[in-house]
Amino acid sequence: MVRKWKKAELKQYEKLLINERERILRELEYESDQIARTQLETSGDLAAYSNHMADQGTETERRELTSQIISSRRDTLFEVNHALRKITRGNYGVCEQCEKPIPKRRLKFLPHARLCITCSNKSH
Ligand SMILES: [Zn+2]
User: 47 CA to middle of ligand 1, Å?
Assistant: First the structure.
């Protein structure tokens, strides 16, 4: 099914998606930077200062958390890019399962939604 979009309206969603993509990329850059810095600290001379077991534990936890955040951001980035491709292809805003239009309310909240709420609930 093809959804009829007003050009201006579709542009709005495209803009939302592009903003989202830029925000994620900025955050990813910041977080990779943080990781690189911790690795540098723990492998360099500074490691001597944080050699207590407790510190090591929190450090590992923190790093694990950061890499979890990064991987979930990468997932979102993938979804955002996917949605942008759908805009180009002309099937943006259509549920990928039941092929019904996704309500605008949902798209405003989640511009990269692939599924309508009904299908999304079913797949969980
Ligand atoms: Zn659906």
Answer: 52
How many whole angstroms separate alpha carbon 40 and alpha carbon 17?
A: 34
Q: Distance between CA atoms of 4 and 49, rounded to whole angstroms?
A: 62
Contact 69, 31 (CB under 8 A): yes
Please give the average per-residue pLDDT across 47-75, as a whole number: 78
**Residue 60 dihedral angles phi and psi, to the nearest 5°:** -60, -45
Report how far ligand 1's centroid is from the alpha carbon of 22 (Å): 28
> Which of the 8 DSSP states describes residue 115?
S
99 C-alpha to ligand 1 centroid (Å): 6
What is the Cα–Cα distance from 63 to 119, expressed in whole angstroms?
A: 35
Classify residue 42 as left (phi > 0), alpha (psi -120 to 50) or beta. alpha
Condensed to tens digits (0 to 9), the pLDDT of residues 11-55 reads: 999 999 999 999 999 999 998 898 888 777 776 655 555 555 556
